[in-house]
Amino acid sequence: MKPIHIAFILLIDLLWAGNIIAIKESVLAMPPLLAVALRYAVLLLACASAIRLVPGRMRLVLATGILTGAIQFGLGAYSYHVATNLSALAIAGQLGVPFSLLLAILIDGERIAWRRTIGIVLAFAGVLLLVFDPRIADERLALLLTAAAALCWAAGNLMFRRLSGISVLNLYGWQALISLPVLLLASAIAEPGGIAALGTVPISAFGWIVYSAIAASLVGHAGMSWLLQKYPVTLLTPLTLPTPLLAVIFVTVVYGTPITPLMVAGGLLTLAGVAIITLRTAQKSVENRAHEPG
Q1: Which of 121, 153, 158, 197 has the maximal Cβ count within 10 Å?
Q2: Which residues of 90-117 are buried (b: 16+ CB within 10 A; e: fewer)?
Q3: Are 274 and 123 in contact (CB under 8 A)?
Q4: Which residues contact 39 (CB under 8 A, 6 or more apart)?
Q5: How far are the Cα atoms of 39, 110, 145, 178 from residue 70, in angstroms, in the given order?
Q6: CA distance 77 to 242
Q7: Residues near 99 by Cβ (< 8 Å), separated by ≥ 6?
Q8: With bands split at pLDDT 50, 70 and 90, how would you rate the model's confidence at 291?
């Protein structure tokens, strides 16, 4: 792997980890649904020229956009809004990986062996430890919302697999186009006065929203898609595993949130489970391709 590409994927890790600060700062300055709506306004402007109709698959494109856009990020933003210890959310957010595997088993009939089964158990056991940590008992609603957002992400992953061949920018464009009006309407109903008060929001909050839309979403996810065209998934996947660790470091430094023994134990269990699932799934993907005819 070229050193420039290794540096790029490590940059993506940093961008994704930094997004936890971007989201928190934006929802501190304005209502969460409005913050997500503005994020998608930026994303729509960036992707508007790439939007194209996808004949025969528009229903799936729109359903995927609303699930992975307005619903997933709405839940996620509200979890950040009610949370004070973001380290716990960075750990719970990793449940998207075991959720993805469980949905693949239930919907696609994927079969797994003992290694990935252990990975699922470890990932959920780690987050369960967080729930019983008395020092972060007030984060239980935020943890539940984060888990729900992770489930939406996992379901969206299965839907994205059925949209192969469509450019990332086109999918993001549709995601923004369908999510923006939904979020604005939801904000107007659930967050009265939020839109009218935008003039009082600090400029820095809008900067964090731009960061979340452009750096974390476009550069991060589009960049990862580009790298996957050049290198096998088994090579790239391990290089993304530092992201949650970096996120915990960032929030600890920026907000000074406590790291409890139970949080460390839960985080290690969850990350171990996610690593097992991720690495084994990547290996199985390569093995299956090797056995395809042709």
Answers
A1: 153
A2: bbbbbbbbbbbbbbbeeeeeeebeeebe
A3: yes
A4: 26, 73, 209, 212, 213
A5: 11, 28, 14, 8
A6: 22
A7: 150, 151, 153, 154, 155
A8: low
CA distance 159 to 171: 12
| Residue 124 amino acid letter | F
pLDDT higher than threshold 60 for residue 81 = yes
Number of Cβ atoms within 10 Å of the Cβ of 223: 17
Model confidence pLDDT, tens digit, residues 239-289: 888 898 999 999 999 998 888 898 999 999 999 999 999 888 777 766 665
Q: Which residue has the tokens 């300055």?
A: 29
- pLDDT for 294 equals 47
- Cα 108 from Cα 99, distance rounded (Å): 13
State the Cα–Cα distance between residues 143 and 130, nearest whole angstrom. 9
141 phi/psi in degrees, rounded to 5: -65, -45
State the Cα–Cα distance between residues 180 and 105, nearest whole angstrom.
Answer: 32
Domain boundaries of the chain, sorted by first residue: 3-290
Q: Which residues of 267-284 are buried (b: 16+ CB within 10 A; e: fewer)?
A: bebbbbbbbbbbbbbbeb
Question: What is the rounded distance in angstroms from the CA atom of residue 23 to the CA atom of residue 40?
Answer: 13
Residues 113, 224: Cα–Cα separation, whole Å: 28
Mean pLDDT of 149-163: 90
> What's the pTM value of the predicted model, to 2 decimals?
0.90
